Amino acid sequence: MAFLEELQFTGSLGDLSFYRMRGTDKIVVRRKGGASKETIKKSPKFALPRLYMSEFGGCSTMGKEVRFMMHPMRALADYNFSGFINKSLKLIQKQDSTSKLGQRAIELSKHPKLLEGFQLNKYTTFDSMLRSTLSWSIDTEKGSAKVEIPALVRDINFFPNNRHSKFSITISLGVVPDFKFNQGTGKYQAPKWYDTMYGCSYTSSEWYSALKGSPATTLELSLDQLPPEAGYSLMLGIGICFGDSLDDGEVKQIKRAGAAKILAIVAGTEKQRESERDVNLEDEEVSNNYNRHDPIETAMVAPPIVTPALPSDVGPRASLRGKKSVEDAKTFVYHYTVSNAQHGVSVREASYSYAINTGLDYTWSHSNRETATIQYPGLPDKSGLRWR
Known about the structure:
single chain, five-stranded antiparallel beta sheet, 20 strands, disordered C terminus
């Protein structure tokens, strides 16, 4: 990279361009040149570069969304970190081993650790200012986050790099979608559900004295809504900003004074639909009622008991008797009959009937055409079956 030393101007001069770039106080010089735009787009010689250009374009598009979800912290950066974000996303893109070159997906939700801990400062980082362990948690179902910051004592675990009188700690939480190549448009795009409604939430602590430090602080925040599908990440950022007190007691934040980083990234989960959640709650309630030990609140339906058919040609006052062995049954059958049962209401009345049909002989008789009784030996009369 070339720099301009003596002359101080920006713009174009012949095939040279002179411009300023954040991160350096010198004027950068570059030469215009290379293949034309039309040649790069259509020439067969640039077929492979076009594939890499497509992928890097996807990283730049997704990098814009990453930076947008960090906008409360961007004022704390001391250099242009856009290219470094794109570089990290390119590493994530290379993890896709299934898609072909030029169409590899950028799935941050599958590789969140590759971007976690990214520093927004080059000269004085967040970890060099706040040298203490932070406890954090992200609830993917509720879309909320909590950060616990221990007590800060200057020159012990708090090392500010300036002489500003006040400092404050800010956290942010945002939704970063995965980007995939769209065959129809030929571009990298976010999921269809992603729109401008998904913003970044942030909160800050009160202003503390930079000379005294601060007590233990807990910061919490939550998002207004969560995506309906998976394929996104929740990104938690943290930063420390500095300010000076004004005459009216207010504190004015100083731009570019402070430090920030990406504290954590967690893959999001698919949001459960309302109808599915209601069904699951009903199933859980029925399951809980079924597992109770109170038999009155439980109804069990047994298969019908097979009884021998009675002859239909029984004449009046005929003395008919028969004896036949019933086939052995494999199970002991019992049948609950629950009355006045309603969903979600405890059953107060229940009647029970039992039948044993293993290895029994039956004898049936009748005295007239209207009534016939089948009785099983060894059982009381009331356990028999009556046919009318």
